[in-house]
Write a structure and sequence with these properties.
This protein is mainly α. Helix 1 packs antiparallel against helix 2, helix 2 runs antiparallel to helix 4 and helix 8 packs antiparallel against helix 9.
């Protein structure tokens, strides 16, 4: 609900970028600590997180732009405005996984063990990132007068502008119409997945088990929440 955290002259601190950066930082630091406890070198996990994060953002933005190419072809200057929202998870996951697989193989690290080490960082980072979506007013849900939240028009968040384009509210409205806070639903579900992964780690398992459980649970949760997302 607060797309802009603070402004200093020409510099603007956006909530979306702040939470996404925080998500990457905490996820990387936690993975490095887990790698050290598992007897693996920690610095490759720092590199994996940084470069994999860059690949994720590039892939997520590229996929989003391609899915809405008629709009971006008319306004090419908006392609790089990722602080306004507009990252598609599927594109980010594909790009990041391709990079990480090549990276792990190039350093001759144990593949599935490395993925298990990083697995809990993923729902943690996703949960924090969804808070950024909430404060930015993007990735919102369907209209709901009972469970919905309305977003202030200050800084014209994506949910407000979309409702203006749909003719639901005038541009001079003070707030958007209430929508389901699917960003918070996603954040809560991601934290639930994190707790499940940490619980399963205490039991005997084969390498890659934690990673694949994350993929399964996240696919189920994401698929369920998509029914309540605005499209």
């Amino acid at each position: 609900m607060f797309p802009v955290i603070a402004q200093w002259d020409s510099f603007t601190l956006y909530s979306y970028g702040f939470f996404v950066a925080g998500a990457f930082l905490l996820g990387i630091l936690w993975a490095m600590r887990r790698a050290g406890r598992a007897g693996l070198p920690t610095f490759p996990f720092f590199e994996m997180g940084v470069y994999g994060g860059v690949a994720c953002i590039v892939g997520a933005r590229l996929f989003y732009v391609l899915t809405d190419w008629p709009h971006f072809s008319m306004y090419p200057g908006e392609i790089f405005r990722i602080w306004d929202g507009g990252l598609t998870l599927y594109g980010g996951v594909i790009a990041a996984l391709i990079f990480i697989l090549f990276f792990i193989q190039s350093l001759d690290l144990p593949l599935w063990k490395s993925l298990d080490i990083y697995a809990p960082s993923l729902p943690l980072g996703l949960a924090i990132g969804r808070l950024g979506c909430f404060f930015n007013g993007c990735c919102y849900g369907l209209r709901s007068d009972t469970l919905g939240l309305s977003f202030p028009s200050t800084h014209q968040p994506p949910v407000f502008l979309q409702q203006v384009r749909d003719g639901l509210i005038p541009l001079d409205s003070l707030r958007s119409l209430p929508v389901l806070p699917t960003q918070l639903f996603s954040a809560a579900a991601d934290l639930g997945i994190l707790l499940v992964l940490l619980g399963l780690e205490r039991k005997p398992r084969f390498p890659g088990f934690i990673f694949w459980i994350f993929i399964l649970l996240y696919a189920l949760v994401r698929g369920a929440i998509e029914f309540f997302r605005y499209h």
